[in-house]
Write a structure and sequence with these properties.
Layout: E1 7-13, H1 17-28, E2 33-36, E3 52-53, H2 65-81, E4 86-94, H3 102-114, E5 125-128, E6 142-151, H4 153-166, E7 170-172, E8 176-183, E9 186-193, E10 196-207, H5 213-220, E11 229-240, E12 248-252, E13 258-264, E14 268-272, E15 276-278, H6 289-302, E16 314-323, E17 337-342, E18 351-356, H7 362-373, H8 399-409, H9 415-425, H10 430-433, E19 445-447, E20 450-451, H11 452-461, H12 467-474, H13 483-505
Helix pairs in contact: 1-4, 1-7, 8-9
């Protein structure tokens, strides 16, 4: 399996939000782009976030003004780019006088309201809590309310990958970069997938491997990393809904960290995140008992509804690859990104490595990457992603209107499924519903509103391979699926894979 004749402008290693963001931006500027991901798109850090597009209120305490300003502005940009997967959300911070004085919080919120461009989102305000209708403990009588956004993090990655492909990028998953070496002014990149080993060539190599960024440089490229990386584990727990309403809570704790309580998928509350140094294998990160106890304690200190470990439906953990700034406190390590360009002499193929970064600022990080690389591509096009709608936002009037259109077209479909489809796919939902007029035409019913028609689409157009890809990262239905239902989906996917192989051979 040789692809040696093709010389790409860019080879991006890593299919998380930064990798697909860079691939998308570059492809839209006229570069030929190849991206490989060893597992699934958003398979690691990018799907283990708190599902927020936010300015980072707590970063103001660490004087990260540039990062906060950029992130605040990006909230509005991303909300316009993908209103089906991103929505405004109000956040309530209960006031705990012994932790942070009211004047300090008001000052921070003033900066939060005015540091970045704010057009669609409401400003902050003081709120009072009445014991009879507040989910908080009676002793918590006031707080502060402000705006940020919620996002389906893994779909943000997939939609950027779809857009990159439509701009001409080649994106492959389940494909590991075994090694890469410079030769005659280009990179020779050796790749491995289930079918075997093959090579491509690229003028520039982009290392967007997230938690593996330093390891990739040292072990796979046999080079020296310019920066150290610190892995900070963030864990979340999912519990049944602990309060009514659609607002999130941001809870302060005695250790100066904060924990979010976020309405999740209509039925649950998402509690997180933690901050702890992680030294293990990023492939094997799991929540610790200490983290579980910590999140339960913070929640129980604030809410009337008391939780125990038996209430936990699901947990997830990820590691944030932060650029090592030698801070003693994991919470204080900068969330800003650092781009490292390595090229010892003029004719040597350049390497661009991405250290750090966060979901909210992925687009700006990609623009910064293009700034670093434009000297190698004199004909590089101009920046374009700020106004470009992501897949599914085209001609989208509103989610409610789209949901109604689906419901009216497909006889027998339930409202929960139409809402999920509208939020996940936006107007691209018609790609697999176009000729469907009844649920009976959707093929095998796997339960909980998942039908063969959608599964086929996800495999064909969204790089889904396994039931985990579909249930965890494409649809979020994994919280409802039982073992027997998952087995039926696995069997269908295996049969579908074999049919596709036979078709390719024919």
């Amino acid at each position: 399996m040789q692809d040696n004749l093709t010389v790409y402008d860019l080879c991006v290693i890593g299919g998380g939000i930064n990798g697909v963001g860079i691939a998308n931006d570059a492809a839209g500027r006229g570069l030929s782009v190849f991206l490989c991901e060893k597992d699934d798109l958003a398979g690691h850090t990018s799907s283990a976030s708190s599902k927020l597009i936010h300015g980072g209120l707590r970063y103001l305490e660490y004087k990260e003004f540039r990062l906060v300003r950029e992130a605040l502005a990006e909230r509005e940009v991303l909300l316009a780019k993908a209103p089906h997967i991103i929505r405004p959300m109000r956040f309530i911070m209960p006031h705990q006088p012994h932790l942070r004085p009211a004047w300090l919080i008001r000052t921070g919120l003033f900066f939060y309201d005015h540091l970045g461009k704010r057009e669609k989102l409401e400003g902050s305000q003081v709120v009072q809590f009445k014991p009879e209708n507040s989910p908080l403990k009676n002793e918590i009588t006031r707080g502060f309310e402000y705006s940020d956004c919620a996002v389906d993090d893994s779909r943000l990655v997939v939609l950027n990958a779809i857009q990159a492909r439509e701009q001409g990028a080649k994106i492959v998953t389940q494909t590991r970069c075994k090694s890469a070496q410079r030769k005659d002014g280009v990179w020779i990149v050796e790749l491995e997938n289930i079918q075997g080993i093959y090579q491509i060539q690229a003028k520039v190599l982009v290392n967007a491997t997230g938690p593996w960024v330093a390891k990739f440089i040292q072990q796979d490229l046999n080079l020296k990393s310019q920066y150290g990386i610190r892995l900070i584990q963030g864990s979340h727990i999912i519990v049944p809904k602990i309060y009514q309403g659609d607002k999130a809570f941001i809870m302060q704790n005695d250790d100066q960290r904060i924990v979010f309580a976020i309405p999740y998928l209509g039925k649950y509350t998402l509690l997180g995140t933690t901050d702890r140094e992680y030294t293990g294998d990023p492939n094997q990160v799991e929540i610790t008992q200490q983290e579980i106890d910590y999140l339960l304690d913070v929640s129980n200190d604030h809410f009337k509804m008391q939780l125990t470990q038996s209430d936990i439906i699901q947990t997830f953990s990820g590691v944030r690859p932060l650029c090592d700034d030698e801070s003693d406190n994991p919470t204080a390590i900068t969330r800003d990104y650092t781009l490292s360009l390595s090229q010892e002499h003029e004719n040597e193929a350049p390497l661009l490595s991405v250290f750090g970064g966060k979901l909210t600022t992925y687009r700006k990080l990609a623009e910064s990457a293009m700034e670093h690389l434009k000297k190698f591509f004199p004909d590089l096009g101009k920046s374009w992603t700020e106004k470009a709608l992501l897949s599914g936002a085209e001609n989208l009037i509103s989610i409610d209107v789209l949901s109604t259109e689906i419901e009216n077209k497909i006889i027998g479909i339930d409202a929960e499924t139409t809402s999920r489809w509208a939020h996940a796919y936006g107007t691209r939902v018609w790609r697999f519903l176009n000729h469907v007029t009844s649920v009976h035409e959707l093929g095998q019913d796997f339960g909980h509103g998942l039908y063969a028609q959608e599964v086929d689409y996800l495999v064909e157009y969204e790089w889904a391979v396994t039931s985990e890809d579909i249930l965890k990262r494409r649809t979020k239905l994994y919280l409802q699926f039982g073992d027997s239902e998952m087995q039926a989906l696995d069997e269908y996917l295996l049969d579908l894979h074999e049919r596709r192989l036979q078709k390719d051979v024919a």
